[in-house]
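Our consortium's second objective concerns turning raw sequence data into structural hypotheses that experimental partners can test. To show how far this objective has progressed, the report includes one record in full. It was chosen at random from the queue rather than selected for favorable results. The single chain below, 263 residues long, was entered without modification.
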Amino acid sequence: MADSEVGREYARTRDIVIVFAVLLVLTALLVIVLVEAWPPAPRPAPDGRAPAAAAKTVHLFGWSPAVSRDTCLFLVVMAAGALGAVTHVLRSFYWYIGNRALRRSWLMMYLTLPIVGALFGLIVYLVVRGGLTSPLGGADDVNPYGVAAIAALVGQFSRETAEKFRAVFATLLAPAQRGRDHAIPPKVSAIDPDNGPPGTAVTIRGDGLDGATSVRFGAARAAVIDATDTLVRTTLPAGATTAPPVVNTPAGSAVSPEPFTVD
């Protein structure tokens, strides 16, 4: 089946400006939510007993609800997770723009990744609070700085977090029965650019490339900078020779149908 051409073209200047503006506005909104929802430090009761959780009035864009400390923590971890994802998005965004290799198909990923980061931050927080890894006490015992830092890192490295969860729970749960189409064999369909000197940023497109470990250019092996199911990003290593690039993945190797010409 022929590869779809939808989103293959490069992003236009208008697309870049719109997405960048949306990311800046989203970053500002997330910072406001994080600051406004930050829970106050627990205050001990007058009789010296354990501090009681007090409600806090959160002011968000004309809405001022009184929320509990637990609700504040939920908002904090989701905002921190989304901010971590935005950090990853902005770093990838300027890299592709600087190398003039930004495709339109990536723009939707940039806009949805903050949502993924927020959800991952919330899931990890629930796992920790649930005592599956390290049990915590009540809401008053939770350090908001700690959970916000964890959520931000989880949002920034959401793909690695998903892989870690899969590795951990694969030992606890029965593996799903493999179907005929359970795993897509790796396949390379295009390389961009297809020529250049050592140090050139190379983007390899195809299917089943998630988890790629390295790319071989002749006898030289290059490290993977970023990998998704349909894309691998790497840099042409020193010692590379003109040959079809070979992408190595846990599911096998995929050879490019076209050679990369080393200048």
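The partners drew two points from this record. Residues 13-173 form one domain. The mean pLDDT is 82. Both points have been shared with the crystallography group to help prioritize constructs.
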